[in-house]
């Protein structure tokens, strides 16, 4: 047992009332958190990890849950232990924010869009600390500096939508720390963030823990983050705790079968060293899929030359263009049939805009895009529609890209209807085959998107993209929001389809370990330009551009013995991509450092 547990969860049971009866979210879960300790609670979606944390804050009741058993013993700042499960609702208002702080997964929903950052930061201080407005403002400024937000004075006056994702998450951390809580609960705080911003946020939480002595309860499904952060690990599966122990023991000598399977399924950076071709991922509970390496062909399918995409910035009384966002700047790349080219980089580097520009979902300013010998840029609107038979897109968020009011079978059939493919019966048969192909039961055709899990929805999005037998699929962060096991299944499905159908993928991602596993070739983007491009093995094992080197250094590795130190992360702030009208950057000039391995020599600002 621990020396001084400041929080003890004993035999917790949480139930949810649904139309189909009572569902038990968490059953008989017990663990403790000591002063100054980081406890990571890991598991997949639906394992009960978030329910456990929300129970400690008693927020689970706002989501339809009820604590029906167990104790939540917590030592308040004055040292008196109380059972949070038995506290009246009014008393919890004094504990939330003051004694227990919380960092939520999605900062945009955790922050109020109509209040300034200053108002949201000072709210807790004014309530719990009885500070004057000026004292609260000074404390807010200190917190902004503590979480390393540049120009804190200016940021305080801004609204959440004016900040980037990483900045917003820092503000949420500052709000959680404002009243110096004894415990900080972090619920998947880095899931939606880039590898570099994730590395900074993790080192920030570690630094603040050391400086303030706050205990951290960290909820995540990313085992690499666990290896980076945890002192102790609690593994959850289907509402039960299946294993608990020090981080080294869990990683080096796991006892429970589920823990072993979860660790085996995690893609680790460097795992593909010495291999030239992509290989399927390992699956939770199964050794592999039987699919071998995917060779692809030497035939060029997609050729992009000097692609430029800019967005106008309007201003003034007449809404004139006063500047341009240089989203994609002089990008050239080649993708062979049956192969995967991955574009990696941070948010705002232009990788998604590049993918959309190739499909002309966003109109490029200039450049050449050739798909299977056809000049996409020269096509009229009608001809472009026909050309889209050969190119499809899988979006990041399947819930947003599927219509909530339409049955899934109808949505997968929609491309067939739009292009007049087959009669009603043939279309129904084709949709049924597609559901078989993405391994979904045929009765799911009658369901709606909200009735499926995230991984199942992404399979529907893949089925819809496959409906017209395309040659090229652009997958924009298609697996970034999925659990490790679901992610492995979806990626293996995509690779299997590539093997069978000869598909080519332009795979847009910021997850370097996944990219290393699935790619034939890799392009690294920074500030609208490709700074390095080449065979996957060359880019990962011999990175030449300073940005590629920094990016690979920031990736957390699922091994507690290889933790990143704050001094290892030497990121420069990203310059603004907004330039005045008439600004023409230099063209991209590359040097070939190996067969097919090109590095940008033009100054990219890094």
Automatic annotation (TrEMBL):
- GO CC aspect terms: plasma membrane
Listed SUPFAM superfamilies: P-loop containing nucleoside triphosphate hydrolases
One GO term in the molecular function aspect is: ATP binding
List residues of the ABC transporter domain. 9-263, 302-552
Query: A single Pfam family, by name?
Result: ABC_tran
Q: How does it sit in the membrane?
A: Peripheral membrane protein
What UniProt keywords apply to this chain's record, in alphabetical order?
ATP-binding, Cell inner membrane, Cell membrane, Membrane, Nucleotide-binding, Translocase, Transport
Which BP terms does GO give this entry?
Answer: peptide transport; transmembrane transport
Q: By its UniProt entry, which Gene3D superfamilies does this protein fall under?
A: P-loop containing nucleotide triphosphate hydrolases
- Protein location: Cell inner membrane
User: Which PANTHER family does the record associate with it?
Assistant: ATPASE AAA-TYPE CORE DOMAIN-CONTAINING PROTEIN, OLIGOPEPTIDE TRANSPORT ATP-BINDING PROTEIN APPD
What family is reported? Belongs to the ABC transporter superfamily.
- Protein known as: Dipeptide transport ATP-binding protein DppD
